[in-house]
Amino acid sequence: MSPTNHLRSFLIASTLAAFSAGLSAADKHGNYHRVDQNEGPPENVDSHAPETDRIHAHSPLWARGPSSATPQLTSGPTGYTPAQIRHAYGFDKITGNGAGQTIAIIDAYGSPSLANDLKVFCTTFGLPQATLGVYYPQGKPSANSGWALETSLDVQWAHAVAPGARIVVVVAKSASLSNLLGAVDYAVKTLGARQVSMSWGSSEFSSEASYDSHFNKAGVSFFASSGDSGAGVIWPAASPYVVAVGGTTLQIGSTGAVTSETGWSGSGGGLSAYYAKPSWQSTFTSATRRAVPDVSYDADPATGFPVYISNYNGTTGWIQVGGTSAGAPQWAAQQALINAARTTSMSSTGSYIYSDATRAYATDFYDITSGSNGAYTATPGLDLVTGLGSPNAAAFVPDMAAAK
């Protein structure tokens, strides 16, 4: 697949049933390319489920192999630094660092160079070295460059937000539904993770609610990317037991201050075909269906994040990446900051987020009021591009930590 244009196309960590909540990367000229990973047909997914809005109509029921347009690595990092992102969203005003918390990153295939690449990332940006554990409960899988990049993004940027938290990467042997959900269960039941990041998603399917038992866990918060193909709803982001993270275009000026934040054109969003509106969204929308996303974060690859990776298609270096999959692990890391300041870990996190918005919307969120994902436009309050908006962590974290 060729680039969609010279500003943006999507490097997507594809999973079951055309999973495409993924990742975008730049080449040395600033162009953005899509690379899909080989994956067999999905397990236990209704392939005849109707698509909602415009969701991923281009995608087959399994992922494609890498395209000829491959992102170009650079010798030095480009994109926003951890210090810039921490300042933009107010994390630099938080005294805690997530110590005592475990963040789980769920990905398929993993990355054989993950630990060493994370060390380079930390050294480059002056971050403390991370406490990292990598687990293969289904056995070690074969290598996959696209998933390796996704895993590196998730780990490096979760650590940037919550450098005191322990990070566990649970690697699914393949991108099948059973293997990915098995990895989720292992993270929660065996490793005790209290915040779980899932940078993947599928077109909705009629039996999706039957899998919600994997996410309806006391004291555990789940975050999933809402997709990078514009308007449309994907699962598990659609689940009311999961916080769906959409995307923005974040502009940071030369002084470090945010000059603008708008809805990103690739941000997945819409109304679920199968889930009714949860009660905690009632204050914000008159729609009868579950609205996605719930919240948002920088996702535009043009305003993206540097990731260090070894032996990516034979080359080692830095890639500037974006996508809503960048926001899910950073929201999970923010949750680690929240839970570290609480006496008990939060349950039903989505309901807490909306409850906080009813009390302190103007101080705890950056309301995104412009930008479109093709079918929907960002508006004041909850919208189908950016949800409630992005976090002002300086206020949001302590307010959520104090919530009863």
TrEMBL record:
Q: What processes does the entry annotate via GO biological process terms?
A: proteolysis
SUPFAM superfamilies xref list? Subtilisin-like
Q: Where is this region: Disordered?
A: 31-50
Xref: PROSITE patterns = SEDOLISIN
Presence of keyword Signal: yes
Asked whether the UniProt record includes Electron transport among its keywords, one would answer: no
Q: Which domain of life is it from?
A: Bacteria
- Peptidase S53 domain segment(s): 79-403
Q: Which UniProt keywords apply?
A: Hydrolase, Protease, Signal
Indicate the secretion signal residues. Answer: 1-25
Question: Which GO molecular function terms does the record list?
Answer: serine-type endopeptidase activity; tripeptidyl-peptidase activity
* Protein's UniProt name: Subtilase family serine protease
What is the native source organism of this protein? Prosthecobacter vanneervenii
The organism's lineage? Bacteria, Pseudomonadati, Verrucomicrobiota, Verrucomicrobiia, Verrucomicrobiales
